[in-house]
Amino acid sequence: MNLLVKSESLIGNRIRNLDRIFEFNTGKVCGCVLIDGFSSLDASFHYVDFLVNYFNEMIVDGMDIERIESVFYECSIAKTECFGKAAMAVVLYSENEVRSLTIGDVRIYFLSERERSVDDSLAQRLIDSGLAPEESINKHPLRNKLTKYISKDSNHTLPSFISRM
Fold this sequence. Notes:
Structural class: alpha+beta
Helix content: 10-25%
Distance between the termini: 27 Å
């Protein structure tokens, strides 16, 4: 399957943009993925490039939602020499179910339920402990200080997908 990277964010002062957004359709499941790469490295082939290539090779026509979930878990332990780190948000939807996953400082907003996913930032920890108001998440100075992310050296496992009917 050829994943088409739909967009690259042009915001920021990086030499090279490290954000990727793509969608796919296996015939059984559709998905949308946002990968937000970061590091102070100027690697020519960054960890986000590895992830896009990995998903492009592993996600194939006919896959069901459980198999696609396993591809995302496998990516976090796949061996690579690529440097860099990434935050990621994934939404999978089939005929009767929506599943989502986030790691890092990305959030998914579920507008119909007026909810958002919880991110892995120090700002979120302050909100959870009652030391900062929930509405501060988008402007808080610690919103980009991560407690979890994925990389070739990361020991952070991907959280479980959350199912919504």
